[in-house]
């Protein structure tokens, strides 16, 4: 339980520090011209660091206490949703916003660049934190040279990419279908889906479904190539989001439009019959 307590304290500390940094960024950037634009990029950097740092700690904890790590995944997912304040923390989320014309192409690319930069910086930051050996788990990980093994080492690339595609599709579908739900309930519903997806796909790929997070957590691990990681952790989630967007934004809207037209035609026919 001492290991779990230290990891929980680490997670709380990460969120607390990032929340202070977000508030400080808002105060500092609001005093400057065009501070609002810079605030978006600052929020992406800070929130992505929070996301990746928590994921690193949970991944490490899952080696000793997988059940507790899974439960904490739900809690952390809720906390992320409540604290990000408009930051995406995921390049595929920016793809959706660009698709829906809520952000421009240049802004989306710059925010994605901020996410990858933050993801790349998180690994060294967490290794510095683990160097303090606050728990036996951290000390053991430091002695191993912070080594990690890729979960897709023995998994065929297409199967692994399909798993990441399915994870991204399910999570995005849940977020889309709960848009009409009050936010305080919606975050719990989506977090529950994320936890279920992590449980189902974790043994295959780690269930990352986030290209920036994968760049921080999976790409440095041994047992896989950059090309295979790119196919699985970048192309898989992008295709998953694209499939979800096509299904809910194109196909379902087309069927809804046809159904509405058909009902209008029937109503018009009934009215015409009554007149006659």
UniProtKB/TrEMBL annotation:
Gene3D superfamilies: Glycerol uptake facilitator protein (1.20.1080.10). Pfam families: MIP (PF00230). GO terms for cellular component: cytoplasm; membrane. One of its GO terms (molecular function) is channel activity. Keywords: Membrane, Transmembrane, Transmembrane helix. It is a multi-pass membrane protein. The chain crosses the membrane at residues 231-248. Coiled coil: none annotated. The keyword Cell inner membrane does not apply. It is found in: Membrane. Belongs to the MIP/aquaporin (TC 1.A.8) family. AQP11/AQP12 subfamily. This is Aquaporin. It comes from Silurus meridionalis (Southern catfish). The lineage of its organism: Eukaryota, Metazoa, Chordata, Craniata, Vertebrata.
């Amino acid at each position: 339980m001492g290991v779990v307590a230290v990891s929980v304290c680490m997670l709380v500390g990460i969120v607390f520090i990032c929340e202070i940094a977000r508030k400080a960024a808002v105060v500092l950037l609001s005093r400057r011209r065009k501070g609002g634009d810079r605030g978006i990029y600052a929020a992406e950097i800070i929130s992505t660091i929070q996301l990746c740092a928590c994921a690193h700690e949970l991944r490490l904890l899952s080696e000793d206490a997988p059940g507790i790590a899974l439960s904490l995944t739900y809690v952390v997912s809720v906390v992320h949703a409540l604290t990000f304040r408009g930051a995406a923390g995921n390049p595929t989320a920016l793809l959706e916003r660009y698709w829906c014309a809520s952000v421009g192409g240049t802004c989306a690319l710059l925010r994605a660049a901020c996410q990858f930069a933050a993801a790349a910086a998180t690994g060294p930051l967490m290794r510095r934190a683990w160097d303090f050996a606050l728990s036996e788990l951290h000390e053991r990980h430091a002695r191993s040279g912070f080594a990690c093994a890729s979960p897709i080492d023995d998994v065929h690339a297409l199967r692994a990419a399909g798993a990441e595609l399915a994870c991204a599709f399910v999570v995005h579908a849940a977020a889309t279908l709960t848009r009409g739900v009050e936010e305080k309930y919606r975050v719990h519903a989506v977090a529950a889906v994320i936890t279920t997806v992590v449980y189902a796909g974790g043994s295959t790929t780690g269930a990352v479904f986030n290209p920036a997070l994968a760049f921080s957590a999976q790409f440095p691990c041994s047992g896989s190539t950059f090309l295979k990681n790119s196919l699985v952790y970048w192309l898989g989630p992008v295709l998953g989001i694209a499939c979800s967007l096509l299904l809910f934004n194109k196909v379902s809207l087309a069927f809804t439009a046809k159904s509405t037209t058909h009902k209008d035609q029937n109503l018009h026919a009934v009215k015409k019959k009554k007149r006659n």
